[in-house]
Design brief:
The protein has 312 residues and is of the alpha+beta class. 15% of the residues lie in helices and 33% in strands. The chain has an 8-stranded mixed sheet with strand order 2-1-3-5-12-11-10-8, sandwiched between helices. Strands 15-16-21-18-19 form a 5-stranded antiparallel sheet. A 3-stranded antiparallel sheet has the order 7-9-13, with no helix packed on it. A hairpin with a 2-residue loop joins strand 15 and strand 16. Helix 3 crosses helix 5. The chain is globular, with a radius of gyration of 21 Å. The chain starts with 13 loop residues before the first helix and ends with a strand.
């Protein structure tokens, strides 16, 4: 017990957190491409590691996501997501082209990070027709660090200049629109294909800046994070807090862990609060006051916080 408050083990809420199925829909999927992974070993390109950076950006922004393999396209796995993120993916099976075209044409969103799926598993050019028709120059390893100018809002809670380096020079044709530039050169582009959209992010950025751009793209297509976790003092995105959401038997459970060595005063907004749900910590016995659709709480250093939302 701390300060006379009894603390209970996680087993008290294992009905919420123990099941493997969280019943939380994941609108976003990361593409893990085995052709890219294999070819990178021969080419020496490190860009396949971009999947880690984009995954970290999504976790930083509290977006739940899935992982999909090309081998799962035939089973209709793409139908389960709205946004497919292909980070550093340059090589594909030729049979992957048609499912990707159908995915976007039917309303899906494809986000390309640095590469644009230009080659097959053996390094031969892929013919995309009018689908991926954005001309790209050779990689520029010596590009200077500049400020990325976006014409769409960057992620809410991540203000400030976005520092980035141009990866390739893009030359958009009439079907592509430039929505981000570096030193006046196109760096982030978008096109409409059928009912969906394709975004190309051609800038190398550190994680914080990447999250600001990825969050802006997702907001541009109306995909919102599962929660908003902001600093109590200035409203900016709180960092280094791991979050998980689960829905079981009419209740929603949230698990938060502060990975830093200092406490954090935060404001937390959850979708359930908009409909008048109550919030408790079942382990410590706290009930939180809901004000303006959010709650205020303190995250202790290197410690967890468990919250349950449900009808009052």
């Amino acid at each position: 017990a701390e300060q006379g408050i009894p603390r209970f083990g996680i087993g008290k809420v294992d009905d919420l957190f123990a099941p493997r199925r969280t019943n939380v829909k994941r609108d976003i999927a990361l593409l893990l491409s085995y052709p890219t992974e294999r070819y990178s070993q021969a080419s020496g390109s490190p860009l396949h590691h971009q999947i880690r950076s984009y995954g970290a950006a999504l976790e930083f922004l509290h977006y739940p996501y899935d992982v999909v393999l090309e081998e799962q396209f035939a089973a209709g796995k793409l139908a389960n997501c709205r946004v497919l993120v292909a980070a550093g993916v340059n090589n594909l099976y030729p049979t992957s082209a048609e499912p990707l075209k159908q995915f976007v044409h039917n309303g899906g969103v494809l986000v390309l990070g640095l590469e644009a799926m230009a080659e097959d598993e053996y390094g031969n050019p892929l013919a995309w027709g009018d689908f991926l028709d954005l001309p790209l120059g050779a990689p520029d390893e010596n590009a200077p660090l500049s400020t990325l100018a976006l014409t769409i809002p960057q992620a809410a809670g991540l203000p400030g200049a976005i520092k980035a380096k141009r990866h390739r020079t893009a030359t958009p044709n009439a079907s592509w629109q430039t929505i981000g530039s570096l030193d006046g050169q196109p760096a982030v582009c978008v096109k409409t294909y059928g009912k969906g959209k394709i975004y190309y992010v051609g800038a190398r950025m550190p994680d914080y800046a990447l999250a600001a751009v990825v969050g802006g793209v997702l907001n541009d297509v109306g995909v919102q994070p599962s929660i908003e976790l902001r600093r109590a003092d200035n409203g900016e995105q709180e960092i280094n807090v791991e979050t998980h959401r689960t829905v079981q038997n009419g209740l929603s459970g949230y698990f938060l862990f502060n990975w830093d060595q200092y406490p954090k005063r935060v404001r937390l907004r959850m979708p359930e609060l908009a409909s008048g749900a109550a919030v408790i910590d079942p382990l410590d016995g706290w009930r939180y006051e809901v004000k303006d659709g959010e709650i205020a709480l303190v995250l202790l250093p290197q410690d967890r916080r468990v919250l349950v939302c449900g009808p009052d």
